[in-house]
Amino acid sequence: MQSNSTAAGTDWRRVRVVLPALALVVAVLLYAVPSAPIPPGPEAERPPSSQLGGIGAIVLDPGHGGLATGTTGPGGISEKKLTLDIAVRLRELIYRRIGLQVFLTRESDHDVPLDQRTEKANNWRGDLFISIHANGYRLPDIRGPETYFLSASASDQIAREVANSENAGAAPTGVEASARPPDPSLQFILWDLAQTQHLRESSMLAETVQANLNNLWQLRDRGVRQAPFRVLKGATMPAILVEVGYLSNHQDAALLADPFFRQQIAEALFRSITTFRDRHAALVGASPEP
Amino acid sequence: MSPRRSNFPARVALIAVSIVVVFGVLFLALNRLGNPAGPEPQVTPDETLPTIDPAAEQDGASDPLAAAVQTERVTLQLFLVDMLNQRLMPRYRRIEAPMTIPAQAQAAIERLISTREVGFLSPLPPGTRVREVWVSPGGIAYVDFDAGLTETLAQSSLAEIYAVYGVIGTLTASFPEINKVQFLIAGQPVDTMTGHLDLSLPLGPLADWLY
Ligand SMILES: [Zn+2]
C-alpha cells in the first residue's frame, strides 16, 4: 500500500510536470493558428464611408515612380510623372464633386513595389482600384488608350494549380517550391485568387473607362483586353489598369504633355467612376446618389 | 498490487497523449480553415528546378560529343509582331535542331530573336541571350534569359506583353509537349520584367494576345 501510494505520488509528480508542458504545447498551438495565412484585407479595417451604390473609397495607383521611370517620350516626358499628375487631378475631382474617399498608392516620385500597392488598396478597404499607366512601343504609329483587367485564364490557371497541388500533393510548380520560402505558398495562392471574384465588375469598369477614353481620342478602339497584370492580382475589389495613350507616338505624346488634355483624361475617368457606381448600385439594389 | 493501481501511470500517459492528439487535430483543422487551398503542397521530385550545370553552358564546339549530336528538321511557329495589325502572328520556319525538346525550344527562341521578315518585328530585343531552356514532365518550359533582357526590353506594358506572349506562343504552338512557360532571368524566377505582368507563375497562351 505504502509502495502503491508512493507510486501514485510519483505519478502525480509526473502529471504536475506533464500538465504545464501540455499547457505550453496548447499555448504554442493557439499562438500558431492566427499566424496561418489569411486573405488580404481584413474586414474589420473598413473605414466608415458614404457607401453610395456600394462605392465608398477609391484607390488610385499612379504607375512606376522613383528609379522606375516607366516609358518615356519626347522632351523628357515620363510615364511616372504623367501617371501621378493624372491621379492627383482625378483625386481632386472625386473629392470635390462626390466627396468619396480617395487614396493614392504613392503621393510623390518614389517607387512602390507592385504587391505593396495592392496591399495598401486592400488595407484601405478600397471599393475600386484604378492603376494609371502610359504605354510605349517601337512602332511609332501605335496610339490611343487601352484598358485592362486581369486575365481570366491567369486566374483559372491558378485555380487549376491549386486543385492539382491538392490532388497530387505537389507544389504549383517546381520554381515556386524551390525558390520561394515554403510558408507563404498558400498565402500567395490566396492573393492570386483575390481578384478572381471581381472579374465581372472589373470588366464592366474597364468597358466604361475605355468608352469614355475613346470619346476623348476619337480613334479606332484598341479595346479592353485581359492580361496577368501583377498589380491587379491581389486586389479584393474591382480593379483595372488604364494605359492613357502611347508616349512613343508623337501625337499622343503631344496630347499627354498638355495639362488641359490630362485634365480631360481625369474627367473621363471621373465620369467612368460615377457611371460604374450607378450601375453597381442598380446591380446591388442600393439607391445611387440623387 | 491491484491491476487498477499498476495501470495508473499508463492511464496518465494515455490521457496526455490523447490531449496532444486532440489539440494536434484541432490545430490542423483550424489551419485548414485558414487556408481553403488545403495543406501546404509537397514538391514532387520531377517538378523541382534543375540545377544549371556550368559545363553545359560552355560552347558545344569544343565538346567532342557535340559533333555526334543527332539533329532533325523541326517546323516552328514563331510569333512575331505584325507591324500592320499590331499583333502577334505566327510565322513558319524550318530549322535543323538537336533531337531533344529543350534544345529545340531554345533554338526556337533564339530564332525568334534573330529572325528577320519585312513587316514583322521580333517581340524580343535584338541581342537577347537565352541561357538555357528545360522542360518539366508536366509540360512547363523554363526559359532562362540573360540579365541583359531586363535592360534592353522597353519599360512598357506592351513591350512586356509582346515579349512574354511571343515566347509563350512560339513554344506552345511549336511543341505539343509544352503548355506553359516559366520565365527566369539569370537563373532566378522573377515577379515581373518591366513592372507590369506577373511572371512568378508559369503562363499559358492567352487568346487576347495571340492571333
Ligand atoms: Zn507602366
Structure annotation, total helices of chain B: 5
Instruction: Kindly state the number of beta strands of chain A.
Output: 6
Helix content of chain A: 40-55%
The major beta sheet of chain B can be summarized as: 4 strands, mixed
Lateral strand order in the biggest sheet of chain B: 4-5-6-7
What is the assembly state of the chains in this entry?
Answer: heterodimer
Detail the poorly predicted runs of chain A: 1-10, 24-52, 165-184
% residues in beta strands of chain A? 5-15%
Structural class of chain A: alpha/beta
- The CATH class name of chain A reads Alpha Beta
Nearest-angstrom radius of gyration of chain B? 26 Å
What would you note in describing this structure?
The complex is a heterodimer of chains A (290) and B (211). Chain A is α/β, with parallel strands linked by helices and 290 residues long. Chain A has a single domain, classed as Zn-dependent exopeptidases (Aminopeptidase). Helix content of chain A is 52%, strand content 12%. Chain A contains ten helices and six strands. Chain A has a six-stranded mixed β-sheet. In chain A, helix 2 (79-98) links the parallel strand 1 (57-62) and strand 2. In chain A, helix 2 packs across helix 10 (259-284) and helix 7 (199-217) packs antiparallel against helix 10. The longest helix of chain A has 31 residues, at 2-32. Chain A starts with a helix and ends in a 6-residue tail after the last helix. In chain A, 46% of the residues are buried. Mean pLDDT of chain A is 77; it is low at 1-10, 24-52 and 165-184. Chain B has 211 residues and is α+β, with helices and mostly antiparallel strands. Chain B has a domain at 72-189: GMP Synthetase, Chain A, domain 3, CATH 3.30.300. Chain B has helices at 3-34, 54-57, 101-114, 148-152, 157-174, and strands at residues 71-82, 87-98, 120-121, 130-135, 140-145, 180-185, 188-189. Chain B has a four-stranded mixed β-sheet. In chain B, helix 3 (101-114) crosses helix 5 (157-174). The longest helix of chain B is centred in the N-terminal third of the chain and has 32 residues, at 3-34. The radius of gyration of chain B is 26 Å and the shape is globular. The N and C termini of chain B lie far apart (87 Å). At the A-B interface, helix 1, helix 4, helix 5, helix 6 and strand 5 of A face helix 1, helix 5, strand 6 and strand 7 of B. The structure holds zinc ion (ZN). Zinc ion binds at residues 63-64, 70, 79, 133 of chain A. Residues 63-64, 70, 79, 133 of chain A line the site of zinc ion.
